[in-house]
């Protein structure tokens, strides 16, 4: 009896420890970690691509929201997960800014992951609560400068895209205001709608419908050209902040050591998802562009992560922003 029980225990331990042969992958649910709260732009992208990826992979891809510390709690969790293809991470430009922002970042974005592929590019919008007393960007800048002790700015923590955009904005206008960190810009948007915070910068994925419904004010979009889904919104450059441009990109990661054939299946599923009619339609409505197939690859992904890490480090250093 004891021997039988031991046998069961041993075989259970062996079966969970043994790597799954790649041809059998996936044979259970895959968890996609989202580094911010539900309802925000990263969550939206994850859920949009998760549905067609589930179809291609023949297993459900479920979303787990792990917000906090500008996405670095989730980054660390994903880096330390089992490298078996059942835990993957969606993250954005924050993977390239975190090493400069966090002195004690407990993982290395350029070393601790396998790279599945890039997903999309999406601009941000500078938005404010509906009754904010500024009708355009010039007035907003003047108001923020005159009332810097009173106004507050919402972001999703140090390392979030909303943080990056806010940091660039405050540097550009040489004025610092109080920032209120949230676990994601989903909840930050709720407070903007409720008037508890004054302004923020967030991806069009999260702001387009609120702008169109006139529930919030918009001052500019951070792309070089206007976004087709928001044709009346000027670029930040047109609105008066020359050269102000931020483009956010998302990508999919797996822990280092995830077998190459497993990564190849995930890359394929991502590429199929980016051609899905509903994904293309929703991305267009939300001002986001899926990347071309040759960029939804591990090579293009790692190359962008490296060039973005090199690009942002001196800018962040100059701004003097960091966390211990
Ligand atoms: N993308 C947002 C940011 O970085 C956070 C979110 O997705 O909730 O500001």
Secondary structure: elements and pairs:
Elements (H helix, E strand, L loop, with lengths): L1 H16 L12 E5 L6 H17 L3 E5 L6 H8 L7 E6 L1 H8 L11 E17 L7 H10 L5 E4 L5 H13 L4 E4 L3 H10 L4 E5 H9 L3 E6 L14 H4 L7 E9 L4 H15 L2 H9 L3 E2 L7 H22 L5
Parallel strand pairs: 1-2, 1-3, 5-6, 5-7
Antiparallel strand pairs: 3-9, 4-7, 4-8, 4-9, 4-10
Helix pairs in contact: 2-10, 2-11, 4-12
Aspartic acid binds next to helix 2, helix 6, helix 7 and strand 7.
Could you please describe the fold and organization of this structure?
The protein is of the alpha/beta class. 44% of the residues lie in helices and 19% in strands. It has twelve helices and ten strands. The chain has helices at 2-17, 41-57, 72-79, 94-101, 137-146, 161-173, 185-194, 204-212, 236-239, 260-274, 277-285, 298-319; strands at 30-34, 61-65, 87-92, 113-129, 152-155, 178-181, 199-203, 216-221, 247-255, 289-290. Strands 1, 2, 3, 4, 5, 6, 7, 8, 9 and 10 form a ten-stranded mixed β-sheet that branches. The longest helix has 22 residues, at 298-319. The protein is globular and about 65 Å long. Residues 36-37, 40-42, 92, 156, 160-162, 184-186, 202-203 line the site of aspartic acid.
Give a short summary of the structure:
This protein has 324 residues and is α/β, with parallel strands linked by helices. The chain folds into two domains: 28-121 and 250-319, D-Maltodextrin-Binding Protein, domain 2 (3-Layer(aba) Sandwich); 123-239, Periplasmic binding protein-like II (D-Maltodextrin-Binding Protein, domain 2).
């Amino acid at each position: 009896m004891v021997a039988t029980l031991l046998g069961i225990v041993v075989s259970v331990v062996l079966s969970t420890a043994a790597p799954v042969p790649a041809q059998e992958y996936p044979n259970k649910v895959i968890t996609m970690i989202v580094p911010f709260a539900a309802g925000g732009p990263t969550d939206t992208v994850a859920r949009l691509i998760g549905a067609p990826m589930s179809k291609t992979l023949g297993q459900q891809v479920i979303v787990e929201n792990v917000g906090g510390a500008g996405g670095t709690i989730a980054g660390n969790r994903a880096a330390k997960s089992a490298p078996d293809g059942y835990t993957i991470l969606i993250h954005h430009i924050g993977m390239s800014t975190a090493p400069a922002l966090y002195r004690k970042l407990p993982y290395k974005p350029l070393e601790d992951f396998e790279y599945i592929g890039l997903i999309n590019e999406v601009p941000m919008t500078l938005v404010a609560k509906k009754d904010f007393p500024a009708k355009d960007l010039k007035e907003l800048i003047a108001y923020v400068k005159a009332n810097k002790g009173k106004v507050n700015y919402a972001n999703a923590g140090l390392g979030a895209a909303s943080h990056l955009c806010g940091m660039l904005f405050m540097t550009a206008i040489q004025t610092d205001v109080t920032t209120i960190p949230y676990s994601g810009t989903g909840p930050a948007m709720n407070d903007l709608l409720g008037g508890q915070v004054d302004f923020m910068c967030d991806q069009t994925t999260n702001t387009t419908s609120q702008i169109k419904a006139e529930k919030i004010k918009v001052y500019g979009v951070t792309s070089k050209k206007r976004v087709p889904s928001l044709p009346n919104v000027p670029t930040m450059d047109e609105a008066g902040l020359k050269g102000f441009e931020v483009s956010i990109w998302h990508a999919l990661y797996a822990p280092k050591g995830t077998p190459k054939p497993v990564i190849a299946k995930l890359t394929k599923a991502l590429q199929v998802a980016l051609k899905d009619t509903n994904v293309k339609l929703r991305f267009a409505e939300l001002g986001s562009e899926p990347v071309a197939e040759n960029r939804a690859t591990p090579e293009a992904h790692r190359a962008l992560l490296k060039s973005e890490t090199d690009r942002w480090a001196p800018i962040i250093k100059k701004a003097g922003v960091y966390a211990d």
